[in-house]
Amino acid sequence: MSAVIRIHPADDVAIARRQLLGGTRVDSEGITVAGLVPPGHKIAVRPIAAGAPVRRYNQIIGFATQAIAPGQHVHTHNLAFSTFERSHEVGAGVHPTAYVDEPATFMGIVRDDGRVATRNYIGVLTSVNCSATAARAIADQFRRDIHPEMLADYPNVDGVVALTHGAGCATASDGEELLVLRRTLGGYARHANFAAVLVVGLGCETNQIQGLMAQEGLAEGARLLIGGKREGRVLWPTILTDTRPDMKVMCEEAFAPLVSIVTYRDFDEALRLLADSPYGLQAGIYTQDIRKAFAAIRKVDVGGMMVNDTSIFRVDHMPYGGNKMSGIGREGVRFAIEEMTNIRMVCFNLA
Fold first, then answer.
1. Which candidate, 194, 248, 253, 254, places its Cα nearest to that of 218?
2. Which secondary-structure segment (H or E) carries 339?
3. How far, in Å, CA of 6 to CA of 28, rounded?
4. Which of 135, 168, 222, 307 could be stapled to 240 by a disulfide with Cβ–Cβ 3.0 to 4.6 Å?
């Protein structure tokens, strides 16, 4: 294997695969290393005159500040950025893709939005440098080498990672620095390898969490009040709050011991939230106002409305069943017989 990689035939530099010592011969490029070249750094493969452009990926990455001989290390000591006229040739280097007969696969994780992850981490982001210590302390509580018991019930979680920085305050509230910071934090928050992120702030920083969420289009997730643990195929009884109507746990049937607590401003909004679902098995309402009870019966399209009881109440002889996407027909001895009975009409003309 060659000691270097040259990305494009027109490149003036190659990349060292490993540390190269002076005097090392690189036969693939026909050069001899002059001095020490660290791994991952650039090495000249042809003479470069002072002031000449230096190409990598067949793109100009800078200009030589002094003459560079083949085999020399190319870095900040002899390379500098400079303005120059750029010409854009769209598709000039396009080559047809050679597809393999059997595409390679890997054991990944498909997120709800279609993204594919290779890990399943929980991230702890900081809005400001002042909360970095707290973020690292939170992540350390879940380190398996220090507190192995903390994630013992969650073998599917690869770990908790703190992502800190040194900015977020003492900056213009409408400046580019804050915009770039929020864009970077948003990129971390949306990374497929993070199943969820926790954002930790101080409260007085310029980079307010609400502003970060708004700029990057992020939304708060549900909050776990109790439960959430899984033992094999058994899910502990779970209560969630701070859910949104678009969450799967709110708009799809969970088939699990799970309940979401949703707040509402008035009775009409409660009925709207209850009715705004493609499902309609049963619903329950608690009220001392008979008018509100009948309003719920009229407005909510469900198979059964339980007044002053929970939605799971039933006895065997009741016509139990759902509307909309919650099934067809009714259970209960009499009603099940009716559902399975095919009524036929027969006429005899005796004239």
1. 194
2. helix 333-339
3. 10
4. 222
- Joined together, the tokens standing for residue 236 give 């502990």
**Residues 197-232 pLDDT 10s:** 999 999 899 999 989 998 998 888 888 888 877 777
Rg of the chain, C-alpha, whole Å? 33
- Residue 162 makes CB contacts below 8 A (sequence gap 6+) with 123, 124, 126, 132, 135, 136, 138, 139
pTM: 0.52
What CATH topology corresponds to 4-80? 2.30.130
pLDDT in tens, 256-295: 898 899 999 999 999 999 888 888 999 999 999 999 999 9
Among 3.40.309.10, 2.60.120.200, 3.20.20.70, 3.40.50.300, name the CATH number for the domain at 230-335: 3.40.309.10
Higher-confidence residue: 338 or 49? 49
Residue type at 238?
Answer: T
Compute the half-sphere exposure of residue 233: CA atoms within 13 Å on the CB side of its CA.
Answer: 1
AA identity, residue 307: V
Three state DSSP letters for 97-137: CCCCCCCCCCCCEECCCCCEECCCEEEEEECCHHHHHHHHH
Q: Could you give the count of Cα atoms lying within 13 Å of 306 in the half-sphere of its Cβ?
A: 16
pLDDT for residue 323: 93
| Distance in angstroms (rounded) separating the CA atoms of residues 141 and 150 | 7
